Amino acid sequence: MTRRKSLLYKAYTPYLLSGPALLIMILFLILPMFFAIALSFTDASLLSYAAGKYTTVGVKNYITFLTSPSFPKVLSSTFVYVVLGVTLTFLVGLGTALLLNMKLRASFFFRGALILPWIIPQVVLVLIWKWMLNPRYGVVNQLLSSLGVIDANFSWFTAPGIAIFVLMLVTVWKQYPLACLILLAGLKGIPEDTYEAARIDGANVFQRFWYITLPGLRYVSKVLIMLLTIWSFTNFTIIWVLTKGGPADSTATISIFTYLNAFQFNKLGYGAAVGVVGLLITLAFSVVYYLIAMRKSEVE
Fold it and tell me: For the whole model, what pTM was predicted?
């Protein structure tokens, strides 16, 4: 009997331990997702949904969004934000990881300081940057205007090209510590003997980086790029607090456009349809990326 209880305990322990996490995922991720999908087929607004006075419209919301002039604009804004954000975050993270991988004094201090932007809550970090870039009393404007680089009271959020630059600056500042730590862990996994053999054979720094470091980081880089892409697709806080999708919707990504329609324009069903389209795009990218890149790495 004791042996039987022991076997049952070992068999059911994994399910008992993972049960709370699974329950949280069902309540706060799976159910809201299906609720949003169901809502996207209705003409509900905030008031009509609360009163229960809304009707089913089928795929009308999807057709309206996909055929509207806003769709290519939102898609291009999302594409620019994702591509630039992921590329710059990866490059900055790789550069800092290479520096921290060197044998430097007080490297533990730099590694601790490096993680600070990641652990600061997004709202707090974005508000700090927004204060620093304020046209009237921001420290960045005060410094650059005193040097004659920009005019006094220069606004960083009124020109589309400048606004996306600011978004990239804050996004990379927030995300690069994670990229650095993941890539640094990958660098630690590359045997030092490989570099030593390459030095003996006469390989220079660039050749060692190209033929040893980059191939050694291949799998870690693919996982990191996938994570950064998914986070960039769903990023809301940084864009909303800084620009609210402006100027002229130049930074209105799918997540921002979903919020604007659902809660600002009071079109809850239409906003849900926009969100579902964003979900399908992210899911399609994840599946294709896994089949092309991740699965190939696993086979190798």
Answer: 0.86
